[in-house]
Amino acid sequence: MPVPCREKSVRGYSTSTMLVSSARALGFIAATLSLSTLLVSFCRVQFSVVSSDTPPGGHLRRVASVGCSVRVNTFRRNDLLDRFVKHYERCGAAREIVVIWSDAELAPPEWLVLRADRSPTADEVAVRVELFDVDSLNNRFKLLETPATDAIFSVDDDLIVSCEVLQNMIDIWASAPRQMVGVAPRLVSRDTNANGGWRYLRWWHVWWNGAYSLVLTKVCILHRDYLDAFSSRSPALVSAREHVDSRRNCEDLLMSFIVANATRAPPLWFRAPYSDYGQSILSFGRHAGISSGVDHVETRGDCIATFARLFGTMPLVTSHSKLVDARSEWLW
Fold it and tell me: Which residues form the Glycosyl transferase domain (predicted)?
């Protein structure tokens, strides 16, 4: 005669009872955390002693908004460029948008030409197009006209940060204008498997080690003087730019070397969200950039070793610090 199934029990409690109790406990914890978050936000608003607009008594003053020149590198991704311009022209921190056009075969789209030719109104952001005869990644940092501001927002056409994040980046940079400020850190370390080699390490190495050596110029703020330095006629930089052209990569690493060599300090990593449409799975590979190449990491390791040899030193400084917006962090 078959024995009827019975629920397993532990010390007098059935499995179903334990599951219900666990679910209730988890629900209670989630509700408590949610209420705590709301309570902290409420208290910050009600009991804040610092205004985001007017400093109390004039003793605490927010860094003055200096604005920036948005400098975007693009190549045959006009749909992304259209979205890019429409987004950043709404940002109050943007004083101008400069499009770097290095495509010698195709002319800029008509909408961009018309937008650049139109004289901006008081409420509009000026748009300029810098046309280059030669397709080179070095054009990203080659000035054809004087920028409208000292602060340069170097960014790719597939990178979007909110207007608030952009303003925060500028405020941080204004407190240390000789350093780079970025939201995409990377790490450089010695390659123990190669004699005198260097390794370029992606984001997960930054996360795992809690360290970074540079911030990518695909989304960063830097002083316009470094763009002049990038185009220097010194033999070392001429050779470095030639290496960038031969590898069709690493212009951002070269700029990091230039800044670190001048400051002897690490860049500033501002932890903030950004959207990278070139890496998005929703693009189905249509907008894949240089970093998607199978030999991308190896190429950049070779560039780092080459630049270190040309500079006669390794100027990149590793840091373990990051900046966050305290208004969005309730656990200190």
Answer: 72-323
